[in-house]
Amino acid sequence: MIEETRILLRHAEDPKMATLAGYESYGGYEVMKKALKEIEPEWIVNELEDSGLRGRGGAGFSMGKKVSFLPHTNDAKYLCCNADESEPGAFKDRELMQRNPHQLIEGIIISSFAAGIVHAFIFIRGEYDDQADILDRAVEEAYEAGYLGQNILGSGFNLDLVVHRGAGAYICGEETALLDALEGKRGNPRLKPPFPAVQGLYGGPTLINNVETLSNVSHIVANGADWFKSFGTEQSPGTKVVSISGCVKRPGNYEVELGVSLRDLIFGLAGGPLDGHEITAFYPGGSSSPVLTPAEFDLPYSFEAMAEAGSMLGSGSIIVADDSVSIPRMALRTAHFYRHESCGKCTPCREGTNWTEKMLERVCTGEATPMDLDIISSVQDNIMGHCLCVLGDAMAMPVSSMVNKFRDEFEETIASEAAKAWSMPVEELAGVGAGSAGDPVGRTSPGVPPGSPADPASSPGRDVPSGDEPGPGGASPETLRRERLAGRSIPDGSGG
Amino acid sequence: MTPVMPSDFDPRNAEPEDFVPPGLPKDIANTTGRLPVGDPEQVPDPAEVEVPEDLREQIQTVVDKYPDSENSGSPKSAAIPVLWIIQRRYGWCTPEGIVQAACVMQVTPAYLESVASFYDLLRTSPQGEHQVLVCTNLACWMRGGDELLDSFCEKTGADREAAGHGGSLSEDGKVLVSGFECLGACDLAPMASVDERYFGPLENGDAARIVDQLEAGEEVLPEKALERRGLAGGVAESTDPRVTEGKGPNR
């Protein structure tokens, strides 16, 4: 069984870590004090670039490079910490902010000092009210201790830090939408270029980094780039807080070196699948990453290995689905989320997410034909890369991966749901065309019994009908899921 | 300016002059509906809008925190935090509250309305005294989020269909029940956010207990609160010398 390598989460179980006194008793803020007095900003930027620290928010871009892109002028520059953690499956920033807010603040102070920034913001999602209160208190403590404000510790360096609460919009996690939200607008993404490093908040150069990325900064400055590179792989140095959730025994946040195997993460740390079930698929990097299957369990968990497998590490959030989860319904949930969260600015995303959801609904009610699966795939192709931001791509990637890798299950769902809707055995229906591509079963036929899922009049809106009758090949995943929930015992996962 | 609509006001058979003249809400605003108060395209005249002194101070403090407050023109950065202040004070973003905020910030009410309507957590209709947001996204759905939402609706009498699409008030109008997209607590799945605090993993039966506790004014399920939860991996001391001999914080 593998062990966690806790750097960011070290001593995090100690409740006093959330206070200034507690953090300082564990050596907190010493690096910041040393940096402001003795270290040249250029050295910090070089060390960050050398360390190879990659952004922990999703894109995995080198943090040091981002800092070095900022122009060396005296214009007002800004730092925004992206704490709008809204990706389904991700909850690592919540843990980091709740347990160790000062580690983040110290990272922000050092990064701002290195880049010559005097205004910093933490953009935290509105749902994290508890964590925002904790941050508010921590920032207040830091001001009182003289670590924020004018002429910090007599070094002549000024920094103001504002905790800004969002109000519930996934799109605000996108860096340019976040800037709009910070400027008090509706959160719509902007055209890039210009990138925020050139023209961001209030038109000034802006550094935008994730909570976990900034939390790493003080550790790198204290120990040097070589120490940091001794963790992880060559292209993915360091440790990563991985959020594991879904159908596993011990869901939660685990900090490991990048490059450990997925098997160690899912089976070793998270305890593997629930009793009596088998894992069928998992998202390796949040809901926007293409799904992988058990065949990929032995891959190392790193940026490069996930990219090579056709997926991505993203925010480092693994959502595990077992045989009780219907893949078409999981695709529908995913599409529903992105349809809800699309800001509506770009047509391919606004229309694409909407129609994908509608088509997947038809799959789950048996109104679709296998040809619709091809249409779903082509819609995804037409979203990818055609919008200002990647929200549309974030739906297109997992949905098309599910349709490609689990096409049989999609076709089975269409056939069995149509059989239910038509109240006839699936074999007979196959003769009418359910199994053969191109024949519009269930859409034009008058044979749909009233009150059936295929009857639009009785369709219960966006939530898809139950599907609790067994399909042709025994119990359907939806039935299994319900059975599992009926007798579920939830692991407490509190760990002691 | 700032006429207040009576609670029984029916826009279908009333003329604008039927509005009751000013009288600012002291506590929970008692208006209903979304008819704008005054002209939404005009920046409110401070001489005409009555803003409680403490509210004005609260808003001004937030506006001053942002660097754009030093610029000329109307600084807008504080729009979201100011709308939060309005929502906390009046229970939701009431038309009167929006006019008051617009007056202090010197922006148009229409602008603030456009911001409020973009974000899921800012409500432009009454949302009751308590809010229960049930996560129905991937991880929670796999572990029974839909069934948990069913249980909350059954207990409160909220409409299940409406609860799944933006929220529905309980029969007595006190509790808002709403299905919600990922709340960022998949480790607690299935979970709910009750009055902005996280609880999970919840059994279906917990729904009734939570609603009873809210109505009785008791502390909600303390044993299932997120803040009482330890790290998933428990207390673990690393033996890796690179960690134990490392410098920097968390030593």
Question: Can you walk me through this structure?
Answer:
The complex is a heterodimer of chains A (496) and B (251). Chain A is an alpha/beta fold and 496 residues long. Chain A has 3 domains: 15-229, Rossmann fold (3-Layer(aba) Sandwich); 239-316, Ubiquitin-like (UB roll), CATH 3.10.20; 327-486, NADH-ubiquinone oxidoreductase 51kDa subunit, iron-sulphur binding domain (de novo design (two linked rop proteins)). Chain A has helices spanning 20-25, 30-38, 41-51, 63-69, 92-99, 101-115, 129-144, 175-182, 211-223, 225-229, 262-269, 303-308, 327-341, 347-365, 370-383, 391-405, 407-422, 426-432, 477-486, and strands spanning 78-83, 119-124, 160-165, 206-210, 239-246, 252-257, 279-283, 317-322. In chain A, strand 5 (239-246) and strand 6 (252-257) form a beta hairpin. The radius of gyration of chain A is 25 Å and the shape is globular. Chain A starts with 19 loop residues before the first helix and ends in a 10-residue tail after the last helix. The longest helix of chain B has 13 residues, at 53-65. Chain B folds into 2 domains: 11-116, no CATH class; 130-226, 3-Layer(aba) Sandwich (Glutaredoxin), CATH 3.40.30.10. The radius of gyration of chain B is 22 Å and the shape is flat. Chain B is 32% helix and 8% strand. A 5-stranded mixed sheet of chain B has the order 2-3-1-4-5. Chains A and B meet through helix 5, helix 6, strand 3, helix 9 and strand 5 of A and helix 2 and helix 5 of B.
